[in-house]
Amino acid sequence: MNPTATTDPQRLAPWLVGLPIAAVFWGLAYSHLTEIADLAIGALGLTRATQLGEAIHFFLYDTPKVLLLLTGIVFVMGVIQTFFAPERTRALLAGRRLGLGNALAASLGIVTPFCSCSAVPLFIGFLSAGVPLGVTFSFLIAAPMVNEVALALLLGLFGWKVALLYLGLGLAVAIVAGLVIGELKMERHLEDWVRAIHLGEATAASGSDQCWTERLHAGLRHVREIVGRVWPYVLLGIGLGAAIHGYVPEDFMAAFMGREVWWAVPAAVVLGVPMYTNAAGIIPIVEALIGKGAALGTTLAFMMSVIALSAPEMLILRKVLKWPLIATFIAAVASGILLVGYVFNLVL
Amino acid sequence: MKHVKILGTGCRNCQATLNLVEEVARAQGVEIRLEKVDQIQDIMRYPIMATPGVVIDEVVVHSGGVPDRKTVEGWFVAPSV
Fold first, then answer.
1. Is B13 an interface residue toward A (CB < 8 Å)?
2. Which parts of the chain span the membrane according to its record (chain A) (predicted)?
3. What is the model's pTM?
């Protein structure tokens, strides 16, 4: 059907030339961020000694840094995702037992393309193919929480250690929550129409037979779609972060988000539920708050809660789950996040 | 006339797919009947695991994400050419 498919081998050439050039420019820009921000500040006639200068420098340094990382990571993820169509992931998970299955499901949640509006079809698709309920939940919890946008922003603003910790702990919460739901044998709390459904064999996995040009194109499309959608949030988030950075006094946040405040972690989790934003908007603000004395564990808990326990997603899931199962899901994820928050505050 | 169904619960991607299909079909001069399927029970009658899905004459031709413009053009080849 696609007439371009036959001419694809020749069209790989522009990619082979363009991609290294883009990579070199990317690397050059990324390694000179401070110089560029310094130059820009100088050109504006400001210095970093003033509050305004410091705030603007923060903005001019962080914005290109985060956007560069975001573009790079989203492109790579876009290409990787072409190898993991939902149908393929489902085939990998079908018939897996609890335990290893949960770990695999959570990991696949990172690389399988997912959008929260697809949560229900995916959920039903998994169950009908014999993926256990607990394993399915591990996937559903991990997929939105450990996504490429969150990782790119954490990497850019906090460094690789925090990004890695977030990744590991996010996976741990997804695995354990899925295990708990699996052990509780809650299949009877699925809506009746869901239990009655028997899906035929899904259409052939799209993506298994793609050639490299198509995969690279998919990466580019992914960048256009994701970066095109989240850049205003990044700008807004970093702008607010810059204002906090420049104007809010040091240790301002320590009084109510510091690590000595025991109720801060649960409060952060509860606050996060009604908020529905994406990682792009929340992480720059979180970074600025931490600079002012907020504890890392508390802020990470808040972030995870905003992303993984959003009210709109609950409403979508309500169409397939009865209340006891939703309540268990919320309780399992919330306890996991609480634990992560406290552990972070204790250790760091 | 082709009967096209767009399966999706109404997120941004579903609307974008609907618009793209409508636009391409018109541009290629192909008459279609466009239907939006937004109830999850109805969507799940088709074997898809990601929305938006596109069904042409009861055959699933696409699922997950906004389809490529070229792909959509492939669905609606103008009858006169």
1. yes
2. 12-29, 66-86, 98-127, 133-155, 162-181, 230-249, 261-283, 289-311, 323-344
3. 0.79
Per-residue model confidence as pLDDT tens digits over A262-293: 788 888 788 777 665 566 677 777 777 777 77
Range of the domain at A222: 19-83+215-242
Find chain A residues with C-beta within 8 A of B53's C-beta: 121
Q: Which of A251, A117, A144, A99 is nearest to B49 (CA)?
A: A117
Contacts of A179 (CB under 8 A, 6+ apart): A98, A99, A102, A134, A138
3-state class of A197 per DSSP? coil
Task: Select from A168, A170, A93, A81 the least CA-distant residue to A134.
Answer: A93
Tens of pLDDT along A7-40? 455 578 888 888 889 899 998 888 888 888 888 8
Three-state DSSP class for residue A251: coil
Closest to A2 (Cβ–Cβ): which among B9, B14, B74? B74
Q: What is the distance in angstroms between the CA of the first residue and the CA of the last residue of chain A?
A: 56
Number of domains composing chain A: 2
Cα distance between residue A175 and residue A192, in whole Å: 26
Q: Cβ separation of B50 and A86 shorter than 8 Å?
A: yes
| Number of continuous H segments (helices) and E segments (strands) in chain A | 17, 0
Same domain (yes/no): A28, A45: yes
Give phi and psi for B7, each to the nearest 5.
-95, 125
Chain B's closest residue to A123, CA to CA, is: B49
Same domain, A91 and A109: yes
Q: Are residues A76 and A184 in the same domain?
A: no
| B11/A115 touch (CB, cutoff 8 Å), yes or no | yes
* Same domain membership, residue A228 and residue A149: no
Complex-level ipTM beyond the 0.85 threshold:
no
Residue A190 DSSP one-character state:
B
Q: Would strands B2-7 and B32-37 be described as parallel, antiparallel, or unpaired?
A: parallel
CA distance A159 to chain B (A): 31
**Domain for residue A153, yes or no?**
yes
The answer to whether residues A76 and A118 belong to one domain is no
Which 3-state string (H, E, C) describes A18-64?
A: HHHHHHHHHHHHHHCHHHHHHHHHHHCCCCCCCHHHHHHHHHHHHHH
DSSP states of B15-35: HHHHHHHHHHHHHTT--EEEE
With contact defined as beta carbons under 8 Å apart, do A109 and A150 qualify? no
The residue type of A2 is N
Instruction: Specify which residues A321 forms β-bridges with.
Output: A190
